[in-house]
Amino acid sequence: MTTAIWWIRRDLRLGDNPALSAALQAASHVLPLFILDDALLRSSRLGENRLRFLLEGLRQLDTDLRQRGSRLVVRSGDPHAVLSELISSEAAGAIYAEEDHSPHARQRDARISASLPLNLAGSAAILPPGAVLKNDGAPYTVFTPFSRLWLGVFAAGGGAPIPPPDRLNTPESIPGQPIPSMPAILQSTLFPPGEREALRRLEAFTSGEAAGIYRYAQDRNRLDLDGTSMLSPYLRFGMLSPLQVARLAWRAIQSAPDSHARKGAETFLNELIWRDFYLHILYHFPHVLRDNFRLEGIPWVNDPQAFQGWCAGHTGYPVVDACMRQLLGCSWMHNRGRMIVASFLTKDLLIDWRWGEKFFMQHLLDGDPASNNGGWQWTAGTGTDAAPYFRIFNPVLQGMKFDPQGAFIRRWMPELANVSDAYIHEPWKMPLAEQQEAGCRLGINYPHPIIDHAWARQRALEAYAQAKTS
């Protein structure tokens, strides 16, 4: 075969890339192609900053390709039409792509493979759907038994990462289009796009006895600490191989200097297994993108004004508002924050999880259909392996536990910057004199709570009980 197309989708990297490797083995010339899919660009769930991150990632990939005697060809339009034209004009013998598991991707690939030589290699998951099943062939819908079998399959798999190619031969004459330009990413220094930065972060997080992975179990829930890996946007677009991340987590477990460090690495690997679990759930039960997996009939209130207060970080509960301001400020939110704000929306405000899930997809750099949906349904108590319906986070206690001195709140809520530790989590309890001294008048500089948590908790319990009995 003279020419093969490497169709890049969610694998913006050269290292540890099975689709690229398969294309290089099959053909003497490889055409790296990215298609700006009209259907995805028109989606109401598309986040502008996520699109910016993608486009900047494509620029970085193009730079890396040019250093290897190649370049990225970008086209816009319907993928079937674009691929058909290139197959014809370049006499390409095959298309190689990494398998994606979302309903849209599966339908698109089925349509294309019906008439074009599409070959899928590798997976957006660490272990692809179908690799972790019950003895009767049914998919798991509970995480714990899934994770046990996952670990057994992964430990037996082994395999070394695929090194990036030294050189790619790409035909010179193929026309493409410039990668679109958009205004700079908000606080782009938080997540510089590209494989090089992703690998640097991965190395820093997993290597050495002082690596962050070894403190992960104790630090990951603290909003005021840099206790997470900060790798999620890179995993979302495949600037990192998820399998490579899992291998390094496994290596860290084996080489941990003590039991505490080992627990940290095991906890991080467990989060990667959750990522796979939600990908598998979406593959086997695609209706979860639209519907509850279970527990229908919740009498949602769906107050638009309360929803807007939540979106803007104006609920009157400092930790909720700080987390929402973090999302609006840098298009990312700490995982503990995601659980806090999701619980507040679905349980305190009784607003349908789909409202919040869509808002997240419109704002998160790492917005991923499977993980985002799984996390929201877990918190709402409607998912496969959901939290008990009676688990309702107390926003005051969550703030006290995971931001004890209020450092995170003050960072994202300048109107609360001078509030004392005694009131930072409950500013509505401040005497008027202290409000004036702190420059934070309730109802003027910062809102009163939009709902009483104790009352809202009881209302949620009754609403969920009603759904369970019906």
Written overview of the protein:
There is one protein chain. 48% of the residues lie in helices and 7% in strands. It is α/β, with parallel strands linked by helices. The chain has 3 domains: 3-124, Rossmann fold (3-Layer(aba) Sandwich); 127-158 and 195-284, Serine Threonine Protein Phosphatase 5, Tetratricopeptide repeat, CATH 1.25.40; 304-469, Orthogonal Bundle (DNA Cyclobutane Dipyrimidine Photolyase, subunit A, domain 3), CATH 1.10.579.10. It has a 5-stranded parallel beta sheet, with helices on both faces. α5 (103-113) links the parallel β4 (94-99) and β5. α11 crosses α16.
Helix and strand arrangement:
Elements: E1 3-8, H1 18-26, E2 29-37, H2 38-41, H3 48-66, E3 73-77, H4 79-90, E4 94-99, H5 103-113, E5 118-123, H6 143-157, H7 195-206, H8 216-219, H9 232-236, H10 242-254, H11 259-284, H12 304-312, H13 318-330, H14 335-348, H15 353-363, H16 369-380, H17 395-402, H18 407-412, H19 432-438, H20 453-469
Parallel strand pairs: 1-2, 1-4, 2-3, 4-5
Which radius of gyration do the C-alpha atoms yield?
24 Å
Mean pLDDT: 95
Spell out the CATH superfamily of the largest domain. DNA Cyclobutane Dipyrimidine Photolyase, subunit A, domain 3
By CATH, the topology of the largest domain is DNA Cyclobutane Dipyrimidine Photolyase, subunit A, domain 3
Order of helices and strands: EHEHHEHEHEHHHHHHHHHHHHHHH
* CATH-level-2 architecture of the largest domain: Orthogonal Bundle
What's the CATH first level of the largest domain? Answer: Mainly Alpha
Class by alpha and beta content: alpha/beta
> Which regions contain 5 or more consecutive residues with pLDDT less than 50?
none
* Main sheet properties: 5 strands, parallel
